[in-house]
Structures are given as structure tokens and as C-alpha cells.
Amino acid sequence: MTxxxxxxxxxxxxxxxxPPLWFDVPEGFFSLPLAATPEERSASAHDFVRGLYSQGDxxxxxxxxxxxxxxxxxxxxxxxxxxxxxxxxxxEEGAAQCAFTVxxxxxxxxxxxxxxxxxxxxxxxxxxxxxxxxxxxxxxxVSCITLREIVVSPDISATGEESKLLxxxxxxxxxxxxxxxxxxxTLHTASMDYWGEFCDMxxxxxxxxxxxxxxxxxxxxxxxxxxxxxxxxxQPS
Length: 237
Known about the structure:
alpha+beta; 10 strands
């Protein structure tokens, strides 16, 4: 398990504007290096690739580090405060994966309950969204589930023919009680055979969200994934 962590402000905001937010993720998530400066992101990318490709060597790590540093630059410029790749072993397919991100966006609403009502109204206006109110330990929130079928070009498909791929996205909007911001947690996956497990995993993460610093002594116990999950952390390549 990773310990609880604050969401770091990104370059689009002043350092002291966004109040801190803590949450915990289960084993199997590899956090991308979204540090405060380009220099720190570049240095962190070298550590990241050594963890992700733990059985590799410099022939893999050296070219991979700049690639992930560039991705981090793109994500930070887009307003993300946290990004991770989830890799999990499965009995049937060998591996299931997801992308998990957190962003903090400013809003002008006076309190979390009012903000959540407004978010629900906006999301519910799209017939493709399954938007619902939530009551989390940290306060009111809104979940939005979207399933989309995308067309895979013959140029990149495994068969050389055009194919269709079903993907799922879980997005949860949590208004800050400590400032005019909304945290947006997003999990996206094409491993739809394990959609239920990913839903359970997201629920477990959301139960750990806190706007006050959690007790460090209990951090290892926070956010344990449900015992019914069949996913387990994949061994890094």
C-alpha cells in the first residue's frame, strides 16, 4: 500500500491556492512523476522507470525515462495533480490495466453540497452519463460512469482489420470543504472483463479521501481493497 498523500498544486495555480487533499491507493499502482518543476519531474522519471521495469536495465531505463518525463509535462500542463498506471495479474488474460488520475479544478460555488448539486445537474444532462449523488466519509460527491465503444484503426489493430473496443470510465467529483475547488478522480480502463473489480477498487480508494491530514500511524491500514477482488498487483516487467 502507498501512504496517504496530498495532491500537489500544478503549474496552472499558485502554490498556496489549492488546499491539501489526501488519499490512498492499493498495491499495483505506479505513480507518474508529477513533481513541481520540470527538473524534478525529469529526475523522478528515472526512479519511476526503474520501479515499473524492475527487471530491466539501462538499455530500457535510459530511453524510457525521457518518455515518461514528457508524459508528466503534458499531464501537469493539462491540470492533473496525480496520475498512475494500474497493473494487475489475472488468471484468464494474464494482466488487466487502468489509468488513474486526480485533478483539482476551481469552482465558484459557496459550499460542497451546493457544488455537488450543480455538478450532478450538469453531468445528468448528457444521456450517455450515468451520474449519481454520493455520500463519502469526506463529504458529498457525484459519480459519473460512462461506457464508450471506440473504433481501432487497422493500422494499429492486432488483426490488421478495423475493430471495436469497449472502454469504461469512472469519474467522481468531490467538492473541497476547505476551498473553492473540486477534486476529480478518474479511472479509465479497456479491461472490461474486470469492470466490477475496478469499480470496487475505485470505491475503496474514495473511502480514504480526506481533506485533513490522516493519522500517519494508521496510513498502512487505510484503503485496503475488498477481499473479494480477484485482481492482484502484476509483477513489474
